[in-house]
Specification:
The complex is a heterodimer.
Chain A lengths: L18 H11 L6 E17 L2 E19 L2 E7 L4 H12 L33 H18 L3 E19 L4 E19 L2 E11 L5 H4 L2 H16 L6 E8 L5 H9 L4 H5 L20 E4 L20 E6 L2 E2 L6 H7 L7 E2 L8 E2 L3 E4 L6 H6 L3 E14 L4 E13 L2 E6 L2 E6 H6 L1 E4 L4 E2 L4 E5 L2 E9 L2 E9 L8
Chain B lengths: L2 H19 L4 E17 L2 E19 L2 E7 L4 H17 L28 H4 L3 H16 L5 E20 L4 E18 L5 E3 L2 E5 L8 H13 L10 E7 L1 H14 L2 H5 L20 E3 L22 E5 L2 E2 L6 H7 L7 E3 L5 E3 L4 E3 L6 H6 L3 E9 L3 E2 L4 E12 L2 E12 L2 H6 L1 E4 L9 E2 L3 E9 L2
Parallel strand pairs in B: 8-15, 14-20
Antiparallel strand pairs in B: 1-2, 1-4, 2-3, 4-5, 5-6, 5-7, 8-21, 9-10, 9-14, 10-11, 12-13, 15-17, 16-17, 17-18, 18-21, 19-21
Helix pairs in contact in B: 4-5
Classes of the chains: A alpha+beta, B alpha+beta.
Chain lengths: 482, 455
């Protein structure tokens, strides 16, 4: 990070935290007893640039700094955080977190070591280090490209945001570990008007990457995609209502997986017995075509992490293998409950939040079918190309997700575009109805953010072309179903 | 002003002075602090006790009409200096926006005009962890003790927060406010015979503790709401009347709130652009935005730019009377600000609702159900299927099927769809069951016909 922004807790900083200081804080936290304690130091700098009506209309920056202290006793968590890294303030936070422990017992001396960390997001050109005019130029390119494409485009907004988080995680089981997490987001929104009809389109992408991201997908690419979507939607017709065959396009459709099965496989829900996947390890929970992994190790992906927010190293975890449930996504707490190893899925939004099991990049692996054969096999159905967000009730797996770009499939051909519509179903039910799977697995570079208990974390999704034999489509045209 | 607000005022004034000295023509600083306690229990055991305080400082600066916004949680001298330097640097990068600028100084309110909205309750800020845990435990116990089919729980939580906030602008505005808010919620789980689980919840939240409902009442209502879902099924795809119970109704109202915001109107990204003085809802619908209700969650005596807060009638007997505007949106649309600016703690400004309320009607909820021959009662919605540009609406829904004025069976896994413009015009009954527990509230209402997609 540039000289201007130095995490104060790192070497050379104004409140440098070394092993000695950290060990002392952990012993204060565990003074009354407790099974585990950790410290989460975070320094985050973000920038944002908003291009609107042909000018860089506003620019912004935010700097946040703090320490979160957690003490775990059985299933109970004590948590406190501070923004001041003075010794007194940090000790006070450690004491407050430690109050959860009642028995006493005294903190044993913690011996800290620095485990090696594999880097999954080396950055070429860190956006924060690049002068403002260069970023303005990228936005200007998107704006120009979008306006040049079609005279029906009446508005273009483009935005770029950049972030760098410096983390120091110290745990009472001895880890003293650092990470540096970059994030880049680029987005274009367009508005098209034809007569009285207005429709919007959008495209966004990014990841844990520097400005070299634009070598693979330039500002023009996103501009063209946002324009294409808005223009297609101008011709959209009312969607059918009722149960029908649905084909998911590769990439973005991974959000279905995220909602339909991902959340239910987060181990905290299974520890509490509140997920519909509780006690089903080893059982068939999806059609045998389905293999689902959560993989934090994809290079530069939005959901990737070198180390989770509890200091554990993540790896690619197989959740479902050929339809059989193999495992959950664990944090430290649930792993100790299930007597298994943490999978590196303990994540938190910031130092102000205790960690919990969260997804990273959740992917459905490729099948054998040719994408065109999948579409040909549908007599009447919906082709789902782009998605907004989704939501799931983890106790029973009922989910909803909204389609922002979909098409009718008639007699094996993709035909008319459909107005925005919801798909609704039940996770386990839909996973059993996966009847064809393409060989075209794609990881989305879209800007996905997952919310759980009020905490937002960046995630990645991906899947191949997928055919589901029956999903309820929430259009307005009754009788449109087969 | 309290000692806390004095301290925050000093911090914000410092930022304004430094920004002016660094070359900013306009500087508006917001300083805030908050202290919170969050507790959660599950199956009677303590799950979480979290306690912390935080501070924040945000500033918007303008060099002429070039705008930048910066934020920091680091209120040390060094942190404040960097905040200001970054803001001025970034404003130099931004391009002049002919509509940017502070509000007309003659419109700024003064603190003697600010009425006391009774938003602070000291009995909330002194609640200790042990007491909070007891409240949560009592609510969960009341829920689980209500019926043996309630076998599990996602837990119960009690939280309290208190905060102070001041706004200081180079136009001469200085004011601050303090508030408290406490909430209690519980979510039990019931299992039906085939093993499918259902969860339901109830909650209470207020700025004043003596207005909160009791843990027992909240727990029992959560239990009832969960048990009612057992045996939920899909219904056939059809068109039928749809009743929105008040929380679901409030969520519909919230969608409208986004579409009457000046920022969506000048961008033409709302289906209500160019619709002032036209019919946007049935004549049973009157919607106000009223920041001046004592003790209400969204109350404020002045807006985020320092204008005196006022009640706005947004929809009157179905006719759209005004958009909600800050001074920027006002200039864009050539209209005066409606004093609806919100100052985010990040320093940014934009119009928002305050207490956004669909005015109650005269029907009781029971009478409305009795009067419904066959239709869907929606108690919960899922997903995000709304396009504000077109008004297209499609969301997942759960609730009950009504047959001959009686609840027949629970329903889940269906979607309801209709363009919002049409939906609001088809409201044919508005109930009297308004509860001011959040800042966007509606009584229950009925829509004469919508598409329900099921099997």
């Amino acid at each position: 990070m540039s000289q201007r922004y130095q995490a104060p807790f790192l070497p050379g900083g104004a409140s440098e935290i070394d092993e000695k200081v950290a060990a002392r804080l952990l012993s204060v936290a565990l003074d009354r007893g407790g099974d585990h304690a950790d410290l989460f130091f975070e320094y985050a700098v973000s920038g944002s640039y908003a291009y609107d009506e042909g000018i860089l209309k506003s620019a912004g920056r935010a700097v946040t700094l703090g320490l979160g202290v957690r003490v775990v006793v059985g299933d109970a968590t004590g948590y406190a955080y501070v923004q001041d890294l003075t010794p007194e303030a940090m000790e006070r936070a450690a004491r407050i977190a430690g109050q959860i422990a009642k028995q006493g017992g005294g903190g044993a001396e913690v011996k800290l070591h620095r485990p090696p960390v594999t880097s999954r997001y080396d950055v070429g050109t860190l956006s924060l280090d690049v002068p403002g005019p260069d970023k303005k130029a990228l936005l200007e390119r998107a704006d120009k490209a979008a306006r040049a494409m079609d005279s029906r485009i009446i508005r273009v907004d483009a935005s770029l945001s950049e972030e760098l988080r410096e983390l120091l995680i110290v745990t009472s089981d001895g880890k003293f570990i650092r990470d540096r997490q970059p994030m880049l987001r680029f987005g274009v929104r367009t508005l098209a008007q034809d007569g009285d009809e207005r429709q919007s389109g959008s495209s966004g992408g990014g990841g844990r990457s520097g400005l070299e991201y634009f070598e693979s997908r330039g500002p023009e690419w996103h501009a063209e995609e946002a324009v294409r979507q808005a223009l297609v939607m101008l011709d959209a017709r009312e969607a059918p209502a009722g149960e029908m065959e649905v084909v998911l396009a590769p990439g973005d459709s991974g959000i279905l997986l995220h909602e339909a099965v991902g959340h239910g496989l987060e181990a905290d829900f299974n520890r509490k017995g509140t997920s519909n996947y509780t006690d089903q390890i080893g059982e068939r929970v999806a059609s045998e075509l389905c293999t689902v992994v959560d993989d934090a190790t994809l290079p530069n992906s939005r959901g990737s992490i070198n180390v989770d927010d509890e200091g554990n190293e993540p790896h690619s975890a197989t959740l479902i293998e050929n339809g059989i449930l193999r495992g959950y996504m664990q944090d430290r707490h649930s792993a100790s409950h299930f007597e298994s190893a943490p999978t590196g899925n303990g994540r938190r939004e910031s130092f102000q939040c205790p960690p919990m099991p969260r997804m990273t990049n959740t992917l459905m692996m490729a099948g054998q079918d040719a994408p065109e054969d999948i579409i040909k096999s549908v007599r009447k159905g919906v082709y789902a190309r782009k998605f907004g967000g989704g939501q799931v009730d983890i106790t029973n797996g009922d989910f909803v997700f909204s389609l922002t770009e979909g098409y009718l499939i008639e007699d094996g051909k993709i035909t008319a575009p459909l107005k925005g519509v919801n798909l609704i179903g039940n996770g386990p039910d839909v996973m059993r109805k996966v009847v064809m799977l393409g060989h075209d697995m794609e990881v989305s570079d879209g800007i996905w953010t997952c919310g759980k208990d009020g905490q937002s974390v960046p995630v990645g999704v991906g899947c191949p072309t997928t055919k589901i034999s029956a999903v309820t489509v929430g259009g307005t045209q009754v009788g449109g179903g087969s | 002003m309290s000692e806390r607000l004095d301290r925050l005022t000093e911090l914000a004034s410092q930022v304004v002075d430094k920004a002016r000295a660094a070359g900013a023509d306009t500087a508006e600083a917001v300083a805030g602090d908050s202290f919170h306690l969050s507790t959660r229990v599950r199956m009677g055991d303590t799950e979480l006790v979290e306690e912390a305080g935080s501070r924040s400082l945000g500033v918007r600066v303008m060099l002429g009409q070039q705008v930048a916004v910066t934020y920091t949680s680091d209120t040390s001298a060094e942190g404040v200096n960097r905040l200001v330097e970054d803001a001025v640097d970034l404003a130099r990068l931004a391009q002049a926006d002919e509509f940017a600028g502070p509000p007309d100084p003659s419109l700024l309110s003064t603190s003697d005009q600010h009425i006391d909205l009774d938003t602070f309750d000291a009995t909330i800020s002194t609640i200790e962890a042990a007491e909070a845990l007891e409240e949560a435990r009592a609510a969960e116990a009341a829920a689980l003790g209500h019926d043996p089919r309630l076998t599990n729980s996602e837990g119960a939580g009690f939280s309290r927060v208190e905060g102070g906030r001041v706004l200081v602008t180079s136009g001469g505005f200085v004011a601050g406010s303090e508030g408290t808010y406490a909430s209690l919620s519980v979510r039990p789980i019931a299992q039906q015979e085939d093993g499918k689980r259902h969860t339901g919840s109830d909650w209470t939240a207020r700025r004043h503790r003596d207005q909160m409902r009791s843990p027992t009442e909240v727990g029992q209502e959560a239990a009832r709401r969960t048990l009612q879902k057992l045996g939920a099924q899909k219904v056939k795809t059809q068109s039928a009347p749809v009743i929105f119970e008040r929380d679901a109704a409030a969520s519909i109202l919230g969608l409208l709130g986004g579409c009457i915001m000046g920022s969506s109107i000048w961008r033409k990204s709302s289906y209500l652009a160019e619709r002032l003085e036209t019919r946007v809802a049935s004549d049973m619908v009157t919607i106000i935005d009223d920041p001046l209700i004592p003790r209400a969650p969204g109350s404020r005596a002045y807006d985020g730019e320092g204008l005196l807060a006022r009640k706005n009638v947004v929809v009157e007997d179905g006719v759209l009377k005004t958009y909600l505007l800050d001074s920027y949106c006002g200039r864009k649309l050539d209209m005066p600000s409606t004093a609806s600016a919100s100052r985010r703690s990040s320093g940014g400004v934009g119009p928002t609702t305050s207490n956004f309320i669909l005015q109650p009607g005269s029907s009781s909820f029971d009478a409305m159900v009795k009067d419904t021959k066959a239709g869907l009662m929606v108690t919960e919605m899922m997903g995000f299927g709304f396009n504000g540009v077109t008004g297209d609406f499609s969301r997942g829904a759960a609730g009950f099927w009504i047959e001959n004025g009686e609840i027949a069976f629970p329903v889940s896994e269906v979607t309801i769809s209709l363009n919002l413009n049409e939906l609001l015009q088809r409201i044919d009954c508005v109930c009297d069951d308004l509860d001011l527990r959040s800042s966007v509230v509606s009584p229950s209402f009925r829509v004469s016909e919508m598409t329900i997609a099921g099997t």
